[in-house]
């Protein structure tokens, strides 16, 4: 790094940045090894019908069972996987694993459950996405409508025309599209109208103080109205109390997710909880 040389020849590449860059590199190497060693695991969080009906399926959430540090959440390694491109490999693994799990659950007496998988921006921009999704569904003998791909507003906004093309390809295949963390990005209504999505997932920032904050309630209610008019299914995430649950149902949400209803758990526990 020859750039950024300072006045007296010292670089602006400070010690702190150096350490952090080293740590990142180490983390990346570890993550590569972790994938080879099968240390990645999926947890599953149930999605419930808001009207008090049962589980309709799950969202797969990746974790790293680190030998020294314990179970690490995606926020600790997804960013570096994304920056390094490793996310493509990790994403393929997540999709395959989630579909394999759904096939098992279908065979174990829950043939109507669906599976949601999160996509990162890089995966979304990858040219292989359509082919990978198609092959994976076929491999596990799953009809496409059982799979929902969750993309955040921000992800889908990065290259609008390219995104629309990919989304159309996926929906033509029969795969469902959820716009995750809705309300936190900057997508225009015009863009939303053009997006072939099937679901809006209201960000938990609007759910947290729903009962105390009239503005949040008004926002949720507007998103529900917007979603209705665009014929989208409305999901609320981050439901932590019985009060929020009742209110979100009253406001017209179709599906709910959150610690109050079910935390992300491993596949065995998910099945036990549903029984
Ligand atoms: P997300 O897709 O919006 O997932 C929801 C996050 O909220 C999950 O965190 C979940 O555990 C958490 N959550 C669920 N219910 C509640 C609740 O009632 N209260 C609170 N406070 N939190 C709740 P997690 O598992 O740490 O995942 C964080 C993010 O990491 C996800 O946000 C998603 O964007 C990303 N992610 C997770 N798995 C994958 C993956 O396989 N691939 C990619 N690309 N991203 C993933
Ligand atoms: Mg999600
Ligand atoms: Mg979300
Ligand atoms: Mg989120």
Describe the protein.
- The model is unreliable at 1-11 (pLDDT under 50).
- The protein has helices at 15-36, 78-84, 87-107, 121-125, 129-139, 153-157, 160-173, 189-194, 214-229, 242-250, 267-274; strands at residues 40-49, 55-66, 70-72, 114-118, 147-152, 176-182, 199-202, 233-236, 255-256.
- It is built from eleven helices and nine strands.
- Helix 3 runs parallel beside helix 5 (129-139) and helix 5 (129-139) packs parallel to helix 7.
- Helix 9 (214-229) links the parallel strand 7 and strand 8.
- The longest helix has 22 residues, at 15-36.
- The radius of gyration is 20 Å and the shape is globular.
- 34% of the residues are buried.
- It is α/β, with parallel strands linked by helices and 275 residues long.
- Bound molecules: ligand C2E and magnesium ion (3 copies).
- One magnesium ion (MG) binds at residues 59, 118, 150, 180.
Strand segment count: 9
- Poorly predicted runs: 1-11
| Radius of gyration, in angstroms, nearest whole number | 20 Å
Assign a percent range to the helix content: 40-55%
Distance between the termini: 58 Å
> Please, how many helices?
11
Instruction: Give the strand line-up of the largest sheet.
Output: 1-2-4-5-6-7-8-9
Which molecules are bound besides the chains? ligand C2E, magnesium ion
Given the helix and strand composition, which structural class is it?
alpha/beta
The major sheet is characterized as: 8 strands, mixed, barrel
Order of helices and strands: HEEEHHEHHEHHEHEHEHEH
Characterize the overall form.
globular
């Amino acid at each position: 790094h020859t750039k950024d040389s300072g006045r007296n020849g010292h670089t602006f590449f400070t010690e702190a940045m150096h350490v952090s860059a080293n740590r990142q590199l180490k983390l990346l190497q570890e993550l590569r090894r972790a994938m080879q060693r099968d240390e990645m695991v999926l947890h599953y969080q149930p999605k419930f019908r808001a009207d008090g009906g049962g589980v309709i399926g799950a969202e797969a959430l990746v974790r790293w069972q680190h030998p020294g540090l314990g179970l690490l959440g995606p926020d600790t390694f997804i960013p570096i996987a994304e920056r390094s491109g490793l996310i493509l490999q990790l994403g393929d693994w997540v999709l395959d694993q989630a579909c394999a799990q759904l096939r098992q659950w279908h065979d174990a007496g829950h043939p109507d459950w669906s599976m949601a998988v999160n996509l990162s921006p890089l995966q979304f921009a990858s040219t292989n996405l359509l082919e990978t999704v198609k092959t994976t569904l076929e491999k596990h003998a799953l009809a496409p409508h059982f799979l929902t791909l969750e993309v955040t507003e921000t992800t889908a906004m990065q290259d609008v025309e390219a995104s629309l093309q990919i989304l159309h390809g996926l929906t033509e295949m029969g795969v469902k599209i959820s716009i995750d963390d809705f309300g936190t990005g900057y997508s225009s209504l015009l863009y939303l109208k053009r997006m072939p999505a099937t679901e809006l997932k209201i960000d938990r920032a609007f759910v947290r103080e729903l009962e105390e904050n009239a503005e949040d309630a008004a926002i949720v209610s507007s998103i529900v109205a917007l979603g209705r008019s665009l014929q989208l299914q409305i999901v609320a995430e981050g439901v932590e109390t019985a009060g929020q649950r009742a209110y979100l149902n009253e406001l017209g949400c179709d599906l709910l997710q959150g610690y109050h209803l079910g935390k992300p758990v491993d596949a065995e526990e998910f099945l036990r909880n549903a029984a």
